[in-house]
Amino acid sequence: MKVLVVGSGGREHALAWKLSQEAEVVVAPGNAGIAQDVECVDLAVSDFEGLLNLCRTRAIDLVVVGPEDPLIVGLADLMRAAGIAVYGPGKEGARLEGSKAYSKEVMAAAGIPTARFGAFDQPEPALVFAREMVASGNLPVIKASGNALGKGVVVCNDLDEAEDAIEMMMLDREFGDAGSTVVVEERLLGFEFSLLTICSGQDYYSLPVAQDYKRALDGDRGPNTGGMGTYSPVAAVSADMVRDAEEKVVKPVLDYLRKEGVDYRGTLFSGLMVSQGKSYCLEYNVRFGDPETQTVMRRVNGGLLAALLAAAKGEPIPPVSISDEAAVTVVIASGGYPGTYRKEVPVGIPQDLPSNVKIFHAGTKFQDDSLVSSGGRVLGISATADSLSEARLSAYRVCDKIEFAEMHFRRDIAASSV
Ligand SMILES: Nc1ncnc2c1ncn2[C@@H]1O[C@H](COP(=O)(O)OP(=O)(O)O)[C@@H](O)[C@H]1O
Ligand SMILES: [Mg+2]
Question: What is the CATH number of domain 122-180?
Fold first, then answer.
């Protein structure tokens, strides 16, 4: 069995590493760390023709698409049309992530619990809607509908902030076309978690929940990032909560899409908020989350290949074998991230790692044979152990041996849960 993983981040490293225990894996384009585990081919995720060619010349049996961008513009459709099994939704399904306005409309049409909202392509009615919301005692959240690289959501504390956000997105076009439509929705208060579900159009199977830490600094301070760390299992999310989310948020959207003629094959990532005991859907993403996937892959014993292949073929999904061990991943980021940061900074990694630690690379490359940084998030230090506290200690012991100018990482990943 030959698998092509498309992408170049920590998520793709974790997927490729796990899949390589069950199959022959090639990654395009990959990164310096992935290249130490499996073969990488230097093709951009946007080079559809190149990727299609690679599938043909290498007789690839399954393509696993990591990031959302190629899915949103139709990579999976192109490959399916060529008869290749692909794990990742087509363009239609990927609109769930590509357009927040569409996604909210689907939630409303399918009866999925979500914050009350309006979608607008003009600033005036958006402002009126936000003013009415504040007048009725609720606070608004303003969201750029398009893909704004995780920066397009402003959770407002008053009307002024909401008005500024609408103007910034719709008039100043801070996020370009991504802000030509905005969603104005009611702010909910509660506890957040995300559910990663493998979907085959007919069937679905949820992976264990991993809690992520979005803010840059300890104590959930500082700006939002792509994610600074994760841990699993999450005691605060019970099996009942997962079942409830599957029943109310996962199943109805898949049913709705199927009725609309969309055969969704890939990951459905549901962003959930539990408010007063009830789960609400904040958003859907159409791919595995990062760094959640790094932690979750550490808990997969086997069966991932069979599950992803079944999903790609539209078949019933065999359960994945999950270990009872705990896993913790701490992200090492470049100084300044998520703002501006230096690249091509030499990265030093200890030669001897304990057997329970795996380092996933998110943004590294080789320069004249030495390892240097190439992104904001650089490494994911991922440890497993019988308990969360041991896994946490193991991960941090290795973090303290990483040498990398201006590097920063959070000290409190999983701290409140051990
Ligand atoms: N209705 C809401 N009420 C409260 N917080 C929200 C709401 N919608 C989004 N948020 C917060 O904003 C974050 C980002 O919003 P989300 O819809 O997940 O967009 P994205 O991940 O694309 O930036 C969420 O993780 C959550 O913390
Ligand atoms: Mg989100």
Answer: 3.30.1490
What's the pLDDT tens digit per position in 375-413? 999 999 999 999 999 999 999 999 999 999 999 999 999
Ligand 1 atom nearest the C-alpha of 190 is: 4
Domain 191-322 sits in CATH 3.30.470.20: yes
Q: Whose CA is nearest to atom 21 of ligand 1?
A: 150
Q: Which of 283, 286, 290, 292 to mutate to test the pocket of ligand 1 (most atoms within 8 A of CB)?
A: 283
Q: How confident is the model at residue 149 (pLDDT cuts 50, 70, 90)?
A: confident
pLDDT tens digit sequence for 172-190: 999 999 999 999 999 999 9
**Where exactly are the structural domains of the chain?**
2-90, 122-180, 191-322, 326-417
Parallel, antiparallel, or unpaired: how do β-strands 321-322 and 300-302 relate? antiparallel
Q: Quick check: bond before 125 cis, omega within 30?
A: no
Ligand 1: which of 99, 100, 141, 182 to mutate, most ligand atoms within 8 Å of CB?
141
54: closest CA among 90, 4, 1?
Answer: 4
The CATH number given to 326-417 is 3.90.600.10
| Phi, psi (deg, nearest 5) at residue 283 | -165, 165
- CATH assignment of 2-90? 3.40.50.20
Q: Cα–Cα distance between 14 and 300 in angstroms, integer? A: 11
| Position in ligand 1 atom list of the atom nearest CA 152 | 23
